[in-house]
Design goal:
single chain; alpha/beta; Beta-Lactamase; Rossmann fold; nine-stranded mixed beta sheet; elongated
Length: 405
């Protein structure tokens, strides 16, 4: 009989035994539909349950636990489905941390074994035709619902393979919501709308979890309906719904033989042949920065991109470094590319209280004394909790052409 005192231990043992029996009976689980797999699991559970006196409610629970481990994401599945959880952090198979309403805590559950955890990782990565192994132990990918996934395998991850899942809301946050959240005010939003409509090239910078991708997504609301927009990302995270003529491209890692990789740099080159009105590069992380700058300098105005930086000045330095990764060009050439390719820098910050704000908007005003010159137009005053206009837009030509001045 199934003894209650050891129920948790026996439940895990039963789950592992039935899972193994199912694997042994069916060599290709992917050939079964969800309903067929559930029926198979129920049959195995029923046989064991009658023999060992397992309660019906426990059989049902174990059935779905096994189904989730074989077809979905095992113990993570319910956290994926919980709309109040924004981040899932797995530190090895036996430690799962969750972020809910800005608070991080450790989950009570964890994977039953390292084997199951590794199987889930490979299922997630393989679903997007990506590869993670000892040769290539770090990968960025996404779930079917668009959630962003980062994986780092051991031994690079010393205490066990790591997986971080950044979830995005089912209904994308819009600019109106950002105004309600006090990420910016209506006056700043109106200014940005004029810049987008007038096809200024805008670069959004910020630190980790400052909301760069969300903000970029909101900016696209202002793109006129008739325009053709092409996006390029490592993992498709942008949720652009206001653009009808939208082309989305995603980079591809090299295959097992180390070939056939398609980096963002190649996608940017390809996009220029696809008659774009605007080009959006989800995030600049390396060599693609040079292609992004060159695209912005070839008459394709209205471009947008994001990058990781602690300030606008820091972001300019990082853009210089990342562009130099692509080609060994003189630094003054790179700086001229930045100054002529990017019009506006928008910087976001996450503050100690968990709020995210547009901390400043600056205009790039050429190269002065050998450096990219930045002139701040708007800054966020934390003491007043308000946005202060500290300058004026100097390059108003695009505003005039669009009738937005």
């Amino acid at each position: 009989m199934f003894e209650e005192v050891d129920q948790s231990v026996q439940e895990r043992d039963l789950e592992n035994r039935v899972r193994q029996q199912v694997r042994e009976r069916i060599s290709h689980l992917d050939s079964l539909s969800d309903d067929e797999l559930l029926e198979l699991i129920r049959g195995e559970i029923s046989q064991v349950g009658k023999k060992e006196g397992i309660p019906l409610n426990l059989r049902n629970r174990i059935t779905f636990q096994i189904f989730n481990s074989l077809r979905k994401l095992d113990v993570l599945q319910k956290y994926i489905e919980d709309e109040n959880i924004s981040e899932i952090m797995v530190n090895g198979f036996n430690h799962i941390f969750l972020e809910r309403d800005g608070i991080v805590y450790e989950a009570e559950e964890h994977f039953a074994s390292e084997e199951i955890y590794e199987d889930v990782i490979q299922r997630i990565v393989g679903a997007r035709n990506k590869i993670v192994n000892e040769i290539s132990p770090i990968v960025d990918t996404r779930l079917e619902d668009g959630s962003r996934v980062n994986v780092v395998l051991k031994p690079i991850a010393v205490d066990g393979s790591l997986m971080t899942i950044r979830k995005f809301p089912k209904d994308p946050i819009d600019m109106e919501a950002l105004i309600e959240f006090r990420t910016l005010n209506r006056e700043v939003a109106a200014f940005l709308r004029s810049l987008v409509v007038s096809k200024y090239n805008i670069f959004v910078s910020g630190g980790t979890s400052s909301g760069k991708t969300t903000f970029l997504n909101c900016l696209t609301e202002y793109i006129p309906d008739e325009e053709r927009v092409i996006t390029m990302e490592d993992s498709a995270e942008l949720q652009i719904r206001s653009v009808k003529n939208l082309v989305r491209m995603e980079s591809r890692d090299r295959n097992l033989s180390g070939k056939n990789a398609i980096p963002i740099r190649k996608l940017v080159k390809t996009a220029l042949r696809m008659r774009p009105d605007r080009i959006i590069v989800g995030e600049c992380r390396g060599e693609e920065t040079l292609e992004m700058l060159q695209a912005f300098n070839t008459g394709h105005d209205g471009g947008m991109s994001t990058g990781h930086g602690n300030s606008t000045e820091d972001m300019i330095s990082r853009l210089e470094s990342m562009a130099l990764m692509a080609e060994d060009l003189p630094l003054d050439v790179i700086r001229n590319q930045i100054a002529s390719g990017i019009d506006i820098m928008v910087h976001l910050e996450k503050y100690s209280n968990g709020s995210r704000k547009v901390s400043e908007i600056s205009e790039i005003r050429g190269v002065v004394d050998g450096r990219v010159a930045l002139e701040r137009i708007i800054r966020y005053d934390e003491e007043k909790d308000d946005w202060i206009w500290v300058g004026r837009l100097q390059n108003t030509l695009k505003l005039k052409r669009a009738g937005e001045e």
